[in-house]
Amino acid sequence: MAKRRKLTNPLALTVMVLLAERSMHPYEIAQTLRRRGKEYSVKINFGSLYTVVQNLEKHGYVEVAGVQRQGNRPERTLYGITEAGRAEMVDWLSDLLAVPAAEYPVFETALSLLPVLPPEEVAELMETRKAALEVQAAALRGVLGQLGGRLPRIFVVETEYQLHMIDAQLEWIKSFHRELADATIGGIEEWKSFHETGEVPQDWQDLDEQEIVLNPERKA
Q1: What pTM did the predictor assign?
Q2: Which of 79, 108, 122, 158 has its CA 20 to 30 A from that of 62?
Q3: How far is CA 197 from the centre of its chain?
């Protein structure tokens, strides 16, 4: 189990990783993230980078490493990672790679609640989602084609993973949509009855009296 950390913002980890390469000022960090396309894999608010760096400094993970002067431009403070920051970075990243976390994606939330909508409406919504995902997949393939020509593969593996996950979701949605269209998905008769009569099927009521744990890893 991953331990509780002083900082939990993935952007803080990203900053430490960049500073492990070399000392930078926040504006240079932002430029580097853009050049490497990290906004596709890390939720980045470029305006908050200074606050992130300040929080890292407060916890002793980064420190002032110097001042950069370029022509008539204002001086810029360079930050570097500390030994404590390097240890935290390695430990944090190792946890993220090795320990599966319950992330509760909003699509899973929606799927868990979908019986409140009629089957035919869900089928239409799945079609809409499929079209949107196909656009996203095409965009990511474009990004990989562009970045892959400039960066070693090790720097774009997260984009590869995103594309694989979208492709997998598309395959699942196509299969699910076929089951909806063919009315072969288990429980669809009760589902239809619920929307035709407005009454909760007895089978559903009986389920409420049972304790069913579909994913023991998520049980509190």
Answers
A1: 0.77
A2: 158
A3: 39
Tens of pLDDT, residues 129-187 = 999 999 999 999 998 888 777 888 888 899 899 999 999 999 999 999 999 999 999 99
Most confident of the following: 7-16, 94-103, 144-153, 209-218: 7-16
Can you spell out the DSSP letters for the chain?
Answer: -PPP-S---HHHHHHHHHHHHS-B-HHHHHHHHHHTTGGGTS---GGGHHHHHHHHHHTTSEEEEEEE--TTSPPEEEEEE-HHHHHHHHHHHHHHHHS------HHHHHHHHGGGS-HHHHHHHHHHHHHHHHHHHHHHHHHHHHHHTTS-GGGTHHHHHHHHHHHHHHHHHHHHHHHHHHT-STTHHHHHHHHHH-S--HHHHHHHTS---S-GGG--
Note whether 36 and 4 are within 8 A (CB): no
pLDDT value for 45? 81
Return the structure tokens found at 152: 């070693």
Q: Which of 104, 110, 164, 92 is nearest to 133 (CA)?
A: 164
Work out the number of other CB atoms within 10 angstroms of the CB of residue 94: 11
